[in-house]
Amino acid sequence: MASGRSSGSRPKFLPTSWVANLATGAPAMMSQTGKSRRRHVLAASLGMSAVALAIAGPVASQESLLPPGFNQAPTPSPVPAPKPTPTPAPPARPPVAPGAPPAGSDLPSPLETDDPETSPVDDVAEPMVRADLPPSSRRGLDRIGVLSSENGGMVVHAFGASGGHYLATLMRETQAPIASRWAAILLRRTLLSQVDTPSTINGADWTAARASLLLRMGEAGGARALVQSVDSDNFTPRLLNVALGAYMANADPGGLCPLVQQGIDRSDDKRWEVARSMCAAMAGEAGIAGSTIDRLRRREGNTIDILLAQRIVGAGAGGRRSVTVQWDDVDRLDGWRLGLATAAGLDIPARLTAPLDARMQAYRTTAAMTPIDARVAAARAAASIGVVSSRAYVDLLGLAMTSQDRGAETLDLAQTLRLAFAATKPADRVAAMQDIWGEDARGNAYGSYVMTARAAAALPVSGDHAAATDALIASMLTGGYDTAAARWARTVDEGSAAWAMIALADPRGGRLSSGDVGGFADDDDSANRLATQFFVAGLGGLNRIDDGNMTSWAEDLGIDLARQTRWTRAIDAAAERGEQASVAVLAGVGMQGRGWDNVSPLHLYHVVRALRRVGLEPEARMIAAEAIART
Q1: How many domains does the structure of the chain reveal?
Q2: Integer angstrom CA distances of residue 38 from 41, 389, 395, 482
Q3: What is the value of pTM for the model shown?
Q4: Which terminus of the chain, N or C, has fewer Cβ atoms within 10 Å?
Q5: DSSP for 531-565, written as a single string
Q6: Which of 486, 520, 538 is the last residue of a domain?
Q7: For 491-531, what is each residue's pLDDT tens digit?
Q8: Is residue 108 part of a domain?
Q9: Which of 508, 494, 504, 493 is nearest to 537 (CA)?
């Protein structure tokens, strides 16, 4: 999950279980099982997945989610005794099959169907009755999402009057990653929110556009949760294709099973046939699974994709096959291969995992079956794009300390983080954080700042750490600790990066003068004074600089604030209408790119200003400060 929102309240540093465990070395949670145990458990877990699906649909639960009385035999209503009548008895009628509706009912008899396997002349003792959810338990398509406004989501009308096809097109064409971690966090929250479906788009296609963007952002769990928010018989071909990616990004091939037949009938993607063989194996239908995978192997050959699927088939209930997967001829991983290999508990060569982008690294670190060392190694990139929060990162390191599978490098990192939290001397805590940050904490290494956010915010304010102040402030702000960072204002040098970040992030910050900006510009060593450009854009968007001074500095820095594009007009119009969700989506559109050098200061200005105008000033402040930290 992403880091918590910035707020004006003072952060609390009371000990919590995950920090206390890390500081003492006590177990933070049950340790991850060893590789051998994972492989022994795999067959049982895959075999049970079909049973779990039958019990509780997409997600198995310990308590029934069905309404009271469902799946229970109804109590028959008492039938009043017939009154005597002098009329003669009616002629005898043919016997009625058990379970048939009463005479005069509008319901068809169970035997009067178009099912070719059921004939009216068959001697049927117990007719088949279709079990389905009652209408009261079915979910509509008019409002879809997993986050309500009460638990962090947007209000239901947050997209306002914006058209569904227009918004879906924006989502489909947005290329991840988003340069700003905080903009990605806001966009993730928006896409997961329980919002009204625009009237111009089918609800399932609307869900598909949102879940697809979440997948490209590395948010595998969120994408799957959205897919599961739609009843399976409402799926469209677009949502079926997104479901393939969502379940495999979570290393969850069993989640595809309720959708397999629809996928085969309504999609051109041949991977649904592979999914059918795996689901048959999970259901204990070894014969069907074997014949299906054999047919695919004859048609496709012994490709890595078929071999990985065959590995799942062999591990299913009743599986009798064993296949060895060789990675020698494989030159890259995609989401499908990564998901299958992870679900099968295979060790993936480092030469294939090391080049993975941040999105795929996020898939790895959030998949429970990934080995603990690999999860820790992938967490830094995932944290840098907003998928892993500071708290989740610390929890992961706490788990690693107690795992029997963790290696020396992982243990060393966990112990260093423990020092960052619990060393007696503040200087030792800062030294431990500097060891974690390394030399360059921009790019993917920015995730190291996320790991230490709470430890940095808990540090006593002191002027003794001048060399580390910029990094300390940057680390605090990755966790949204704005008031903690603001307390360091009296210790930082005016014109420094730490000073600029505080000036932008402080919830009680005031306006700056032209001379204040000049002091920062004099020490700016970024290419083309990009940091100063971002500083002026952020101040302008937050209304923390006079219009005259902002215009003067914009001209000096070559920023044409008057320039209008389709995007600037769109985000300004959405802000004018007060549409928080539309502004958040357009902010993501305007901040596409792998680094902040791909972000225009003009775009930053419009993003920050629009967010402030629709009541999202905390996010606006964090985005503006992040621009300084990562430039």
Answers
A1: 4
A2: 5, 27, 21, 42
A3: 0.79
A4: N
A5: HHHHHHHHHHHTT-B-HHHHHHHHHHHT--TT---
A6: 486
A7: 999 999 999 999 999 999 999 999 999 999 999 999 999 99
A8: no
A9: 504
Domain span at residue 354 reads 30-55+253-366
CA-based end-to-end distance of the chain: 25
Residues of 525-548 as b/e, b for ≥16 C-beta within 10 angstroms? eeeebbbbbbbbbbbbbbebbeee
Q: Which of 408, 352, 463, 504 is nearest to 6 (CA)?
A: 504
Q: C-alpha distances in angstroms, 242 versus 150, 246, 272, 500, 604? A: 28, 6, 12, 42, 31
CA distance 368 to 603: 38
Is 100 in contact with 111 (CB distance < 8 Å)? yes
SS3 491: coil
Q: Give the integer Cα–Cα distance in Å for 539 and 624.
A: 8
Q: Does 433 fall in a domain?
A: yes
Tell me the sheet residues that pair with 193: 147
Residue 467 neighbours by CB under 8 Å, 6+ apart: none
Residue where a domain terminates, one of 208, 233, 250: 250
For residue 3, being part of any structural domain is answered with no
Asked whether residue 132 is assigned to any structural domain, the reply reads no
Please provide the average confidence, as pLDDT, over all residues in the chain: 83
> For 60-83, what is each residue's pLDDT tens digit?
333 333 334 334 444 444 444 444
Burial of 34 (0-12, 13-18, 19+ CB in 10 A): middle
Distance CA 295, CA 298 (A): 5
